[in-house]
Amino acid sequence: MAYWLFKSEPGTWSWDDQVKEGKKGTEWDGVRNYTARNNMRAMKIGDRGFFYHSGADREIVGLVEVVAEAHPDSTTDDERWACVDIAATGAVPKPVTLQQIKDDPRLADMALVRLGRLSVQPVTAAEWKIVCKMGGVT
Asked: 95-114: per-residue pLDDT in tens?
Protein backbone atom coordinates (compact mmCIF):
# COMPACT_ATOMS: atom_id res chain seq x y z
CA MET A 1 0.00 0.00 0.00
CA ALA A 2 1.15 3.51 -0.79
CA TYR A 3 0.20 6.82 0.82
CA TRP A 4 -0.70 10.13 -0.79
CA LEU A 5 -1.91 13.65 -0.08
CA PHE A 6 -4.74 15.29 -2.05
CA LYS A 7 -5.02 19.09 -1.86
CA SER A 8 -8.13 21.14 -2.46
CA GLU A 9 -9.38 24.64 -1.77
CA PRO A 10 -12.38 24.22 0.54
CA GLY A 11 -14.39 26.67 -1.59
CA THR A 12 -13.84 24.47 -4.65
CA TRP A 13 -14.11 20.98 -3.09
CA SER A 14 -14.18 20.58 0.68
CA TRP A 15 -13.87 17.67 3.06
CA ASP A 16 -17.63 17.91 3.62
CA ASP A 17 -18.17 17.60 -0.15
CA GLN A 18 -15.95 14.51 -0.19
CA VAL A 19 -17.80 12.92 2.73
CA LYS A 20 -21.16 13.47 1.01
CA GLU A 21 -19.99 11.27 -1.89
CA GLY A 22 -20.02 8.27 0.45
CA LYS A 23 -18.24 4.97 -0.05
CA LYS A 24 -18.58 5.10 -3.84
CA GLY A 25 -16.27 8.11 -3.85
CA THR A 26 -15.74 10.53 -6.68
CA GLU A 27 -13.19 11.46 -9.32
CA TRP A 28 -10.25 13.58 -8.22
CA ASP A 29 -10.56 15.47 -11.47
CA GLY A 30 -9.33 18.71 -12.97
CA VAL A 31 -5.64 18.11 -12.23
CA ARG A 32 -3.50 19.68 -14.94
CA ASN A 33 0.00 19.07 -13.65
CA TYR A 34 2.05 16.22 -15.13
CA THR A 35 3.72 15.23 -11.85
CA ALA A 36 0.38 15.11 -10.01
CA ARG A 37 -1.13 13.14 -12.91
CA ASN A 38 1.76 10.69 -12.84
CA ASN A 39 1.28 10.26 -9.10
CA MET A 40 -2.35 9.30 -9.73
CA ARG A 41 -1.31 6.88 -12.47
CA ALA A 42 0.88 5.12 -9.88
CA MET A 43 -1.99 4.65 -7.41
CA LYS A 44 -3.63 1.33 -6.68
CA ILE A 45 -7.03 0.51 -5.20
CA GLY A 46 -6.69 0.53 -1.43
CA ASP A 47 -3.95 3.16 -1.29
CA ARG A 48 -4.66 5.67 1.45
CA GLY A 49 -4.40 9.42 1.45
CA PHE A 50 -4.67 12.60 3.45
CA PHE A 51 -7.30 15.15 2.42
CA TYR A 52 -5.70 18.59 2.77
CA HIS A 53 -7.49 21.93 2.74
CA SER A 54 -5.25 24.44 0.99
CA GLY A 55 -5.79 28.19 0.90
CA ALA A 56 -6.47 29.88 4.22
CA ASP A 57 -6.93 26.67 6.26
CA ARG A 58 -3.77 24.78 5.28
CA GLU A 59 -4.48 21.61 7.24
CA ILE A 60 -5.01 17.89 6.89
CA VAL A 61 -8.65 17.30 7.78
CA GLY A 62 -9.52 13.83 6.54
CA LEU A 63 -8.48 10.40 5.33
CA VAL A 64 -9.37 8.92 1.95
CA GLU A 65 -8.90 5.68 0.06
CA VAL A 66 -8.35 5.12 -3.65
CA VAL A 67 -11.43 3.25 -4.93
CA ALA A 68 -10.71 3.35 -8.69
CA GLU A 69 -7.34 3.41 -10.42
CA ALA A 70 -6.33 5.99 -13.02
CA HIS A 71 -8.80 6.51 -15.86
CA PRO A 72 -9.55 9.38 -18.28
CA ASP A 73 -10.54 12.61 -16.53
CA SER A 74 -14.21 13.26 -17.37
CA THR A 75 -13.72 17.03 -17.25
CA THR A 76 -11.69 17.10 -20.47
CA ASP A 77 -11.48 15.46 -23.88
CA ASP A 78 -7.68 15.74 -23.76
CA GLU A 79 -6.40 12.18 -23.39
CA ARG A 80 -3.26 13.32 -21.56
CA TRP A 81 -5.19 13.84 -18.33
CA ALA A 82 -6.21 11.09 -15.94
CA CYS A 83 -7.64 10.88 -12.46
CA VAL A 84 -8.45 8.37 -9.74
CA ASP A 85 -11.58 8.01 -7.65
CA ILE A 86 -11.26 8.50 -3.89
CA ALA A 87 -13.67 7.94 -1.01
CA ALA A 88 -13.61 9.45 2.47
CA THR A 89 -12.80 6.97 5.22
CA GLY A 90 -12.78 9.27 8.24
CA ALA A 91 -12.07 12.70 9.61
CA VAL A 92 -8.82 13.56 11.33
CA PRO A 93 -9.86 14.13 14.99
CA LYS A 94 -7.33 16.96 15.44
CA PRO A 95 -6.62 18.57 12.04
CA VAL A 96 -2.89 18.85 11.41
CA THR A 97 -1.79 22.25 10.16
CA LEU A 98 0.94 22.98 7.66
CA GLN A 99 2.74 24.90 10.40
CA GLN A 100 2.72 21.86 12.71
CA ILE A 101 4.19 19.79 9.88
CA LYS A 102 6.86 22.39 9.14
CA ASP A 103 7.72 22.60 12.85
CA ASP A 104 8.41 18.86 13.11
CA PRO A 105 11.98 18.13 11.96
CA ARG A 106 11.02 14.51 11.15
CA LEU A 107 8.80 15.91 8.37
CA ALA A 108 11.34 18.31 6.82
CA ASP A 109 11.56 16.21 3.64
CA MET A 110 7.79 15.73 3.25
CA ALA A 111 6.57 16.73 -0.21
CA LEU A 112 4.04 19.08 1.40
CA VAL A 113 6.96 21.09 2.79
CA ARG A 114 9.22 20.85 -0.28
CA LEU A 115 6.64 20.95 -3.12
CA GLY A 116 3.97 23.20 -1.66
CA ARG A 117 1.97 23.76 -4.85
CA LEU A 118 1.72 20.15 -6.02
CA SER A 119 -1.93 19.04 -5.72
CA VAL A 120 -1.35 15.28 -5.51
CA GLN A 121 1.74 14.21 -3.59
CA PRO A 122 3.37 11.04 -2.29
CA VAL A 123 3.64 10.50 1.46
CA THR A 124 6.12 8.02 2.93
CA ALA A 125 4.97 5.34 5.38
CA ALA A 126 7.00 7.05 8.13
CA GLU A 127 5.40 10.44 7.38
CA TRP A 128 1.96 8.82 7.34
CA LYS A 129 2.48 7.38 10.84
CA ILE A 130 3.81 10.64 12.26
CA VAL A 131 1.00 12.79 10.84
CA CYS A 132 -1.68 10.26 11.89
CA LYS A 133 -0.32 10.35 15.44
CA MET A 134 -0.29 14.16 15.40
CA GLY A 135 -3.92 14.14 14.27
CA GLY A 136 -5.13 11.59 16.81
CA VAL A 137 -5.81 8.94 14.16
CA THR A 138 -5.68 5.48 15.69
From this structure: 999 999 999 999 999 999 99
Tell me how far apart the alpha carbons of residues 76 and 22 are, in angstroms, rounded to a whole number: 24
CA distances from 137 to 34, 69, 72, 81, 134 (A): 31, 25, 33, 33, 8
Please state, in angstroms and rounded to a whole number, the distance separating the CA atoms of residues 26 and 88.
Answer: 9
The pTM for the full model equals 0.96
Residue 62 amino acid letter: G
- Which strands, in side-by-side order, build the sheet including 82-97? 26-27, 82-97, 59-72, 48-53, 3-8, 120-123
Note whether 97 and 61 are within 8 A (CB): no
Q: Which domains, and CATH codes, for the chain? A: 3-134 (3.10.590.10)
What is the C-alpha separation between 47 and 69, in angstroms, rounded? 10
Alpha-carbon distance 126 to 107, whole Å? 9
- Please state, in angstroms and rounded to a whole number, the distance separating the CA atoms of residues 29 and 36: 11
